[in-house]
Amino acid sequence: xxxxxxxxxxxxxxxxxxxxxxxxxxxxxxxxxxxxxxxxxxxxxxxxxxxxxxxxxxxxxxxxxxxxxxxxxxxxxxxxxxxxxxxxxxxxxxxxxxxxxxxxxxxxxxxxxxxxxxxxxxxxxxxxxxxxxxxxxxxxxxxxxxxxxxxxxxxxxxxxxxxxxxxxxxxxxxxxxxxxxxxxxxxxxxxxxxxxxxxxxxxxxxxxxxxxxxxxxxxxxxxxxxxxxxxxxxxxx
Length: 237
Ligand SMILES: [Ca+2]
Ligand SMILES: [Ca+2]
Prior knowledge:
There is one protein chain. This protein has helices at 2-13, 219-236; strands at 20-23, 46-53, 57-64, 75-81, 97-98, 105-110, 119-125, 130-135, 143-146, 154-160, 171-179, 189-190, 205-206, 211-214. It is built from two helices and 14 strands; from the N terminus they run H-E-E-E-E-E-E-E-E-E-E-E-E-E-E-H. A hairpin with an 8-residue loop joins strand 6 (105-110) and strand 7. The protein has two domains: 1-16 and 218-237, no CATH class; 18-217, Immunoglobulin-like. The site of one calcium ion has 7 residues, from loops. One calcium ion is lined by residues 24-26, 28, 45-46, 189.
């Protein structure tokens, strides 16, 4: 009976823990962000971002209001402040975005790899330059993309916790931006801003207050802790 209960407890804890969800206003893009037919760029309109982690990776799902395969030129950026103090406000791609008080890690990702796919770079600021830690095209296993929910408007990144310098219990600040393919493009939508991030393609965007996430113990490590407790309890009898 005890073994059965233990197995059930472990089964219920298996898999990735439920995600933290950060909501953004739908329709908070300036009216100038439309295609030639006047249709809003829904694939750049962030609706929510979900983050969770397991023992090795951080999972970031960026949801937008449009089909990412139908309009696949969007770029999806994440700026992190890990608290290193060695930060830059410019971001790893030098887009026309001021990342608040500064970031030290950066994901620059795109949805147009091969026409339908996802690609991304992980970069780290060393005080002088934004160096590429890994990228999907390098295949080092430190950053991966998932386009399986593109039709539903979800761009997903899977990033190594170790590559971000993160351990269980660490809290970091972050912001998410959508942008275009031009080097001087602004953050068309920013997760940190409930209102318009910029009035047009030619005007820069500035982050609002960063969101925060705390790396959680994984379900498997919780299950092990529980098992340890059960074993310890049994020994005491
Ligand atoms: Ca939005
Ligand atoms: Ca927003």
